[in-house]
Design brief:
CATH topology: Nuclear Transport Factor 2, Chain: A
Helix content: 25-40%
Number of strands: 8
Shape: elongated
Strand order of the largest sheet: 2-1-7-6-5-4
Number of helices: 4
């Protein structure tokens, strides 16, 4: 059983980064942090724009994503995760009684990730990094000639690894209330619609 996003982040990431005594080390730390923050932004934009080719470059081959909260899903492997981005399954967590909405019935469906409040930590050897970030996802689309909108919130805990001199996403832990976003869910049958 996972703890809160904050507990999980502090299990992984150092509370304080190792002091970097030289100018070169301080510049490397700033460059690494900047790269990680830009990757987080690009992750959100790639998901929204459905740029699976670019996500493939950002993800490590053995990436793992675990979603908690109102959803319960673990996906391992870059190709499997990109397929889940293309065709989300969104399995409900135990006790969450909503029905998945068929998104193919919407025209002009747009998704927007709004990612903020990032905390980034870089390992002592500059080969691993972690980030905690809040997100809000807004979804807009037309159905039966009418515009509809829904949103949900959550928290990411990302792990990054540097391979061949390049940072990649290695792990996503996601706490989400996605299953209650009105664009993705309807009340369960028998709950009055």
């Amino acid at each position: 059983m996972r703890g809160t996003p904050y507990e999980e982040f502090w299990k992984l990431a150092p509370r304080e980064e190792r002091p970097r005594p030289t100018l070169e080390e301080r510049i490397q730390l700033l460059e690494d942090r900047w790269t990680i923050e830009r990757m987080i932004d690009e992750y959100g934009l790639c998901c929204d724009a459905r740029r699976w080719d670019r996500l493939k470059e950002l993800y490590a081959e053995d990436i793992e994503r675990e979603i908690m909260g109102t959803l319960a899903e673990t996906v391992r492997g870059r190709d499997q995760l990109i397929e889940r981005h293309r065709n989300p399954v969104l399995p409900r967590a135990e006790g969450i009684d909503t029905v998945k909405v068929d998104l193919t019935t919407f025209q002009r469906l747009e998704i927007r990730h709004l990612i903020s409040t990032r905390i980034v930590r870089i390992s002592d050897d500059n080969q691993t990094a972690w980030a905690l970030a809040y997100y809000q996802m807004a979804v807009v689309g037309q159905k039966d000639g009418e515009w509809r909108r829904g949103e949900h919130e959550g928290t990411y805990v990302f792990t990054f690894t540097r391979k061949a001199g390049r940072w990649q996403f290695a792990r996503h832990l996601v706490w989400s209330n996605n299953a209650v976003n009105p664009m993705f869910a309807a009340p369960a049958v028998g709950e009055g619609r």
